[in-house]
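INTERNAL TRANSFER SHEET
From: sequence group
To: structure group
Subject: FAD-dependent oxidoreductase

Please process the attached sequence and return the structure record in the designated field. Keep the field labels unchanged so the import script can parse them.
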Amino acid sequence: MYTKSIWNIFSTTTDFPQLQGDVEADVAIIGGGITGLSTAQELIKQGKKVIVIDERKIGGGTSSHSTGNLYVTIDQILSSLASKYDTKTVKQVIAARKAGFAAIENNIKNHNIDCGFTTCSWYLFAGDEANRDKIEKELMVAKEAGLDAEVVMPSYMPVTVSRAMKITGQAQFNPMRYVQALAQVLSGENCRVYENTRATKIEEQDDHCMVHTTGGNIKAKHVVEATHTPKGIMMVQTLLGPYREYGIACKVGSDLPHDGIYWGYYDQGEKYSIRKYQRDGDTFLLVVGKPHKVGQAKRNVSHTEALEEFARKHFDVQEVVYRWGGQHYRPADLLPYIGRKNEGSNIFIATGYSTDGLVYGALAGKLIADEINELPNEWHELFSSTRNQPLKAAKKFISENVNVAKQFLKNIPGVADSKAFDAIRPGEGKIIEKDGHKLAVCRSEDNQLHVRSAICPHMMCVVNWNDVEKSWDCPCHGSRFDIDGGVLEGPALHPLHEIVFTGKKVKSHHVD
Ligand SMILES: Cc1cc2nc3c(=O)[nH]c(=O)nc-3n(C[C@H](O)[C@H](O)[C@H](O)COP(=O)(O)OP(=O)(O)OC[C@H]3O[C@@H](n4cnc5c(N)ncnc54)[C@H](O)[C@@H]3O)c2cc1C
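Return from structure group:
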C-alpha cells in the first residue's frame, strides 16, 4: 500500500501560523520547499524583508519526496549535456551546482542541523553489458570537465555491475529535516513564515504585486513562485515534461553497501537509484526510479511493484516499509529555468530541475536574490528563465507538446447510468460521462463516492486516476488533485470543479 515518504516519517515538526489578514513585505515567496527557503535566506542576507507561505506544511512538497542525494553531476548525465552544448557549459553547470551544494553544507554546519548529512561517493554503473558504453562516455565527459572521476566498482553492492565510475566528495541527507530546520532558523522579523496558506491568484501591477491567499492578501514589490512549477498558464510549461517517479524504503536482512549514491542502468536503460538511510537505530534500503509522464501510466501501481521486484531480486528484503511518489519537471534543453517570469516582470520562477532540484533549489535562492537586488551573477544567463534555446530545446519541445496534444484529443469512453457509479469499488476511480460532463468519480476506502469535474482547470485536459496515490493526475502539464478535487501540485491554481446533481441535470461549479 502507498504510504508516506520516509522523510515525512523521520521528520521534525513545524508549527507556523496560518496567514490571517493583509500583510506587506519586500518579497512574497510562495512555497516553503528548498527553493523558497533558500531564496528567503539569500534575500534576508541582502537586507530584504520577506514572507514565505506554503499551502501545506513546510517541506511537505517534492523536497520531502526526493532521494536526498547531493551531487554535482546531473540526473540526465553529463554526456547528454555535452552532446547538446560544449565542455564549457558542462563545466559551468558543475561549478554552479558546487555552489548550491556548498550553500546546503554550510547551513548544516553553521546551524548544526540534525539531518543525517553524510559525505559519500557517487557511483554510476552499468548493470548489464548493453549499458557499458554509457559509463565510458560519462567518464570521459566528467574528466574533460575537470571532475576527479575514476573507474571504481562499488563494493558490497549485490547487483551485477559490468562497468562503474566513481566521484568522491558527494553527500546525502534527510531533505525534510533540512528544510524544516532552515525555516526555523530563518523565521523572525525579516522572514515571516505561514503554513496552510494557499496562493489563489498572483497579480502584477505597475509598482507592486499582490498575492491573494486563502488567509489574506500579500502586497510586495517582488513575488517568487517557488512552487516547483509556476502556477497558471505560462510559456515555460511548454518546455517542461512533468514526470512522476517512485521510491520505496525497505528493511533488509543482509548487509548494505557503504553510504553512497548508487545509480545503475539496467534493461533498456532503466535507471535505479539506490542508497541507505539510518536513523534512530534503524537502517533502510531506498530504491527510487520507474518514472512515467504524469497521468499517463496504465497502472501506477506496476511502477512501485517493479521497484519492489528489483529490490527483492538483489537484496534480502524483509519488509517494504514505505512507498511514495514524487514529481519532477524535465526541461527541454536540459537546464532549469530560474529567473523572471518574462522580461521586465517582478515575478520570479524556478523550475525544470529534473531530479536534481535539491542542489538547484539552493542555487536558485542565490540567483533569484541577486537578480532582485540587481547584483551580477555568473550563472544568470545560463539558467535564465527567459532564454531562448530553439535549437537545443526543439526536439524535446516538439515531442513533449505532441504528447500533450494527444492527451487533449484522447477520446475517453464514458457511461452515463448509475450502474457505472455502483461498479466503482473502494480505492478505484473512473471517468464517467454524464449529461455532456466528464466526471472524475472515485470511491474512498470508507466506501464514500467522491465526484468532481474531470476537466483540469489549468488548461482543460481530462485528468486520469492514479491508483497508487489515489489522486487525479493531469496528463498535459502535471497538475494533481486529491479525491475532493483539491490541488496537490502542478500549475493548476484552482481545485477541480464541484459537481452538483439537480434532478437529472449535472452542473459544474468553479471552486477557489
Ligand atoms: C523521486 C524523486 C527523487 C529526487 N531525488 C533528488 C535527489 O536525490 N537530489 C536532488 O537534488 N533532487 C532530487 N529530486 C528533485 C528535488 O526533490 C526537487 O527538485 C526539489 O525538492 C524541488 O524543490 P522546490 O522547493 O522547488 O519544490 P517543493 O519542495 O515541491 O516546494 C514547493 C512548495 O510550494 C508549495 N505550494 C505549491 N503551490 C502553492 C500555492 N498555490 N500556495 C502556497 N504554496 C504552494 C507546496 O506545498 C510545496 O511545499 C528528486 C525528485 C523526485 C521526484
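Handover comment: Residues 30-36, 53-56, 60-63, 65-69, 198-199, 226-228, 231, 245, 247, 288, 326-328, 353, 355-359, 361 surround flavin-adenine dinucleotide (CB under 6 Å). The radius of gyration is 23 Å.
Transfer complete.
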